[in-house]
Amino acid sequence: MKKEIKPIAYIQNDFTSKFGIPRQSGLSNILSTIVFEKEFSDSSALKGIEGFSHLWLIWGFSQNEEEKKFSPTVRPPRLGGNKRVGVFASRSPFRPNGLGLSSVCLKEVKKGALVVEGADLMNGTPIYDIKPYVPYSDCHPTATSGFSVDGEEYRLRVNCEAVLLAKIPKEKQEAFLQVLSCDPRPAYQEEGRNYGFAFAGFEIKFVVKEGVLTVLEIEKE
Questions:
Q1: pLDDT digit string (tens) for 138-168?
Q2: DSSP string covering 66-85, please?
Q3: Do 21 and 53 touch, CB atoms closer than 8 A?
Q4: Tens digit of each residue's pLDDT (9 = 90 or more) over 1-31
Q5: In whole angstroms, what is the distance from residue 41 CA to residue 90 CA?
Q6: Alpha-carbon span 74 to 81, nearest angstrom
Q7: For 137, phi and psi rounded to 5 degrees?
Q8: 13, 185, 194, 205 — which has fewest CB within 10 A?
Q9: How far apart are CA 77 and CA 19, in angstroms?
């Protein structure tokens, strides 16, 4: 008999929309809190987890606007959107079961919650399972990355005037700048176009020209 899966927890963080979320886990030091559903908040379920530095999160693409008919190929943003690869050779959110996998750093164990760093998930994302990251079996130093390339190639230089940056709470500024450097524009961006996204209760406006992201406005939502 097939068992239906259900969320064991939901994530809470400063990403209130899909726009601006890091494209992969581990690219920022954004802190997120995984809050367990009452059924799964028994502290004994976390016994021993503090001994692991990193965790695997299995989660759901809950913000996909609609169910799409299965497509065996997708257009990865990092290939410019004009080249197709197999869906199982990509990390496209449009998958047969809409499940994602992320590696995060465990920072703190609380009653009924975990604080993690580096999640690439939107606030409210359902978590279906959590497993410890085990270096001796999960780390593969000689692994190749196919058509994907080193994320550092996509880092932007960030220009944010001090008077604007000061609007962001001090404890969130470093993570905010990391998010900007990862290029929060949509996959098919236009050079010189003004963009905006929500972060930590603020609306951020910016423009990118010649590899430099310049913050134009930071306003309370």
A1: 998 898 878 776 554 568 899 999 999 999 9
A2: S-----SEE--GGGTTS--E
A3: no
A4: 567 889 999 999 998 888 788 878 877 888 9
A5: 33
A6: 9
A7: -115, -25
A8: 194
A9: 14
Cβ-in-10-Å burial (0-12, 13-18, 19+) of 130 comes to buried
**Cβ atoms of 154 and 185 closer than 8 Å:** no
- The structure's pTM equals 0.83
Residue 177 has what DSSP assignment?
Answer: H
Structure-token pair, residue 124: 């409210």
Q: In this structure, is the dihedral angle defined by the CA atoms of residues 71, 128, 124 and 183, taken in order, positive or negative?
A: negative
Rounded CA-CA distance 15/204 in Å is 12
Cα–Cα distance between 176 and 174 in angstroms, integer?
5
Strand 212-220 to 157-159 pairing: parallel
